[in-house]
Design goal:
This protein is α/β, with parallel strands linked by helices and 356 residues long. It is 44% helix and 15% strand. α11 links the parallel β11 (256-259) and β12 (276-278).
């Protein structure tokens, strides 16, 4: 029996694809020994046990960004983290490590090399993180979610997706999705969302322009984020929600999307063949714009910089797309061409190659 150790965590961007692969391994072989390596502080400390997997703990050791006391202590702390992973490998007779980035992955890659076992790297973002840039140099396989991701020997495998997205039949669930949000399945629907915390820029723009969307004959499903204080006008055809735990139904109900461009978001939208406008989050190192770049280059989506997205943008740039059925159809076709629903399957095949 093969023992798999999946390393990653910290954010949903690392944890969700990790869990998709864990579930895929279990679905293929119910007796597969699948364990997860993560920190006690990250999102994985809650989500991994909830999904029924054992979480093996490694110390959280951030890479130093400046010469300070933490930088001086880094070598000793990092060696201790590597030793912790080596111990987990020995105790559980681990055969292969799969890293998804984050604090757990860097010591996992070094421990795997020291133990003489193969490891595979998966990078979800178009701009790789430091741990995966280091690990990719010696990995048995390197899978990426977006074409052009600058890692050595990278192979486009796509994003491991949640099963409810991977298997989603949008047409079959459209009526259920519309009913879930109190919308009419026979009218076109625009979905607007900015991630679990929402997006103030999108919320502000549509708060000032939702009426134009409805006047154009469209419905609006607006997911504002739990922290938003945006008031619901209670208008028929405008479904405002703070949070949605059934994004599969939201995707099934919609015909066009305006959203941020996190790696999972872009991967899911493209995999489902939905045309979109992406408004990348402006904070960070620009990875959200890079995540959207492939879809934009192929004509599946349009990118509007965050600073340019105002209430005037909705009638000026969004409504012309909503009223151009031919353009939306063309964008949907392009999205379906580049979208990958088999990310989990593809990455598991790479893991099998590493073990061969």
């Amino acid at each position: 029996m093969t023992t798999y150790l999946l390393a990653g965590g910290g954010t949903a961007g690392h944890v969700n694809p990790l869990l998709a692969v864990a579930d895929g391994l279990r679905a293929r072989d119910a007796d597969a020994d699948v364990r997860v390596l993560g920190t006690a502080e990250g999102l994985e400390s809650r989500l991994v046990p909830q999904r029924g997997y054992e979480l093996l703990i490694v110390d959280k050791v951030p890479f130093p960004r400046r010469p300070d006391r933490a930088a001086a202590a880094f070598p000793v702390r990092f060696r201790r983290a590597v030793a912790q992973v080596r111990q987990h490998i020995a105790e559980h007779a681990v055969d292969v490590i799969v890293g998804f980035g984050g604090y757990a992955s860097a010591p996992a890659y070094l421990a795997a090399r020291g133990a003489g076992i193969p490891f595979v790297v998966h990078e979800a973002n178009a701009r790789p993180g430091l741990a995966n840039r280091l690990g990719a140099r010696r990995a048995a396989g390197v899978g990426v979610a977006f074409e052009g991701t600058p890692l050595p020997r990278a192979r486009l495998v796509g994003m491991p997706l949640r099963r409810e997205i991977e298997d989603l039949d949008r047409s079959a669930l459209r009526a259920e999705g519309a009913a879930h949000f109190g919308l009419d399945p026979d009218r076109p629907t625009l979905l607007v969302f900015g991630g679990s915390l929402g997006a103030l820029r999108l919320n502000t723009a549509f708060a000032g322009a939702w009426r134009e969307v409805l006047d154009a004959g469209w419905q609006l499903l607006h997911v504002t984020g739990e922290r938003s204080d945006l008031e619901d006008p209670g208008e028929p055809g405008y479904a405002l929600r703070r949070y949605v735990d059934r994004m599969d139904l939201a995707f099934a109900a919609c015909d066009f999307i305006v959203s941020r461009s996190g790696a999972a978001t872009v991967s899911e939208i493209s995999a489902l063949g939905i045309p979109a406008v992406y408004v990348p989050y402006a904070v960070g190192n620009g990875e959200q714009a890079l995540n959207a770049a492939s879809a934009v280059a192929h004509g599946a989506a349009i990118l509007i910089p965050d600073a340019e997205f105002t209430p005037d943008t909705v009638p000026g740039r969004i409504l012309p797309l909503l009223t151009d059925a031919d353009e939306r159809s063309r964008m949907a076709e392009k999205a379906a061409e580049i979208g990958i629903r088999t990310g989990t399957e593809n990455l598991i095949a790479m893991i099998d190659e590493a073990l061969a």
